[in-house]
Amino acid sequence: MHEGVIVKSLFDIAEKSRREACLQEIKTVKVVIGKFHQIVEEVLRMYFDLMKKDLPGFEKAVLEIEERELKIKCKKCQEVILLKEADFSCPSCRSIDIEVIQGNELYIESLKGKQKNKLM
Question: Looking at the domain covering 3-68+103-114, what would its CATH class be?
């Protein structure tokens, strides 16, 4: 399952961001995931909850997921289509010359956390 590798990469990026922002504790990690990636949300959450236990500052973190629908644009007839099934052809003209314009996202949108106490 590729969800474990994805969560590991998300934590690598989030840890770097946590250090740069001087955050002591991360409360929320919000990710945007396009349906093109075919990620199983329950499995992603399971890996997140397992891995966060071993990462200082992430033990209490909650994963928020925003899923993006898969949209394509036909290069032949210019129609924009929201795909419900994995049929990568234009339903209007049946062309397979298409471009994915939404649904291929996979990134951390935001981290929310607690700032480190700064002593002077």
Answer: alpha beta
